[in-house]
């Protein structure tokens, strides 16, 4: 009997699967879930990374940001547990803003108060991202107005009760963004007149933003008169280091050095990339657990298959099949099961990510596809070897007699 060709081996494997369709599907299910988990989790991780990167890149270039807490370590990475990080550290106020505003190399300085609050108009209520800022915030956020106008420095000085809405929230509250101009909204028990609507950005947060003068928030919205962050627009990239150094010296007069962080935009993006490299590795490890479980399931089923087909193995050996032929047959079935499960998992993950992309910038990562598919194939080989060897080592006479 001549050795089986790859075509013969594949055909035999497919015929075996057709005889036990339900068992084939259930056996591949573990690999399917594993591959889908790896690709999907990494896709979501990449999406989150893209989202954060887009947020910072949309702020423009030559940007310096002051955060509360020791956000970054000396090596440029994340500080231990953001300690004290965003949840603690310095509490910035108007005095800090006015002091930082004196830095000559800073083109503009923008304090930011932020709260997520319901915004009501015409009996409709929508969740909005309320931000108290200066007029220069429109430069930092690269915002232009589709309707109406932005508020000005005089509005900040006079504590004018005006607001500029994001395109999406204006559309939700007034059915048409254009109709929002001149109308009144209520948020945090504060009545505000809408004087402008920003052009659509295609970003959920930016399109649902409510911008108002930071002085207007003092009272009901911001009784403590504090800011979460302070932004600097630097007129020349060569002056960034100087601005950072001066800002640190000014803040150090009021706060401990560990209670605030002054950093540039590129450093934040670099840190984001480092963090998501670690996150992706963890996600791969989590998804690989499903692949491992799927591999064990394949091994169990293949052992059962060897037992069921003992007589078949004996007959094949009796008419000339070698141990290598038997080994190849059962090993190929295990690999085909893994590859089949991997392809289905990849297809399902791709479909899910296509749906998610409508709301979030998730993406298929080529490396995750290669890793998931390679691992699923390797699992088929690894866990298929043991049952295949058992089948190949069966004595022909005893195998024929097996009932």
TrEMBL record:
InterPro entries: ABC3_permease_C (IPR003838), MacB_PCD (IPR025857), Macrolide_Exporter_MacB (IPR050250)
A single cellular component GO annotation: plasma membrane
Molecular function per GO: transmembrane transporter activity
Major subcellular location class: membrane
Annotated signal peptide: none
Cell location: Cell membrane
Domain MacB-like periplasmic core positions: 24-249
Membrane topology: Multi-pass membrane protein
TM annotation in the entry: 25-48, 275-301, 335-356, 362-386
Residue ranges of every copy of the ABC3 transporter permease C-terminal domain listed in the record: 286-396
Keywords noted in UniProt: Cell membrane, Membrane, Transmembrane, Transmembrane helix
Family membership noted in the UniProt record: Belongs to the ABC-4 integral membrane protein family.
Record protein name field: Efflux ABC transporter, permease protein
Top-level taxonomy: Bacteria, Candidatus Beckwithiibacteriota
């Amino acid at each position: 009997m001549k050795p089986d060709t790859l075509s013969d081996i594949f055909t035999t494997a497919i015929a075996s699967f057709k005889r036990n369709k339900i068992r084939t599907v259930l056996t591949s299910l573990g690999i399917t879930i594993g591959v889908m988990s790896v690709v999907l989790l990494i896709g979501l991780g990449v999406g989150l990374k893209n989202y954060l990167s887009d947020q910072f890149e949309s702020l423009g270039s030559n940007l310096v940001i002051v955060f509360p807490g020791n956000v970054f370590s000396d090596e440029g990475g994340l500080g231990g547990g953001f300690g004290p990080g965003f949840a603690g550290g310095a509490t910035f106020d108007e005095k800090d803003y006015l002091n930082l505003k004196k830095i000559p190399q800073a083109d503009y300085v923008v304090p930011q108060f932020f709260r997520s609050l319901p915004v009501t108009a015409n009996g409709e209520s929508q969740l909005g991202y309320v931000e108290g800022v200066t007029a220069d915030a429109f430069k930092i956020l690269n915002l232009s107005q589709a309707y109406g106008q932005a508020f000005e420095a005089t509005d900040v000085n006079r504590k004018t009760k005006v607001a500029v809405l994001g395109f999406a929230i204006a559309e939700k509250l007034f059915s048409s963004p254009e109709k929002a101009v001149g109308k009144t909204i209520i948020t945090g028990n504060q009545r505000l007149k809408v004087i402008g609507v920003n052009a659509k950005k295609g970003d959920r947060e930016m399109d649902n933003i409510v911008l108002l003068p930071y002085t207007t928030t003092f009272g009901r919205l911001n009784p403590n008169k504090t800011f979460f962050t302070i932004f600097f627009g630097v007129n020349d990239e060569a002056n960034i280091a100087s601005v950072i150094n001066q800002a640190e010296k000014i803040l150090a007069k009021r706060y401990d050095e560990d209670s605030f962080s002054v950093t540039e935009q590129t450093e934040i993006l670099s840190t984001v990339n480092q963090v998501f490299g670690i996150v992706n590795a963890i996600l791969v490890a989590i998804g690989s657990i499903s692949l491992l479980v799927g591999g064990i399931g394949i091994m169990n089923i293949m052992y059962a298959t060897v037992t069921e087909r003992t007589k078949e193995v004996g007959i094949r050996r009796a008419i000339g099949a070698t141990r290598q032929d038997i080994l190849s047959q059962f090993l190929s079935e295990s690999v085909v099961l893994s590859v089949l499960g991997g392809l289905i998992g990849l297809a399902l993950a791709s479909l899910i990510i296509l749906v998610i992309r409508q709301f979030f910038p998730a993406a298929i990562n080529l490396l995750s596809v290669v890793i998931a598919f390679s691992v699923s194939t390797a699992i088929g080989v690894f866990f298929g070897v043991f049952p295949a060897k058992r089948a190949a080592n069966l004595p022909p006479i005893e195998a024929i007699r097996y009932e």
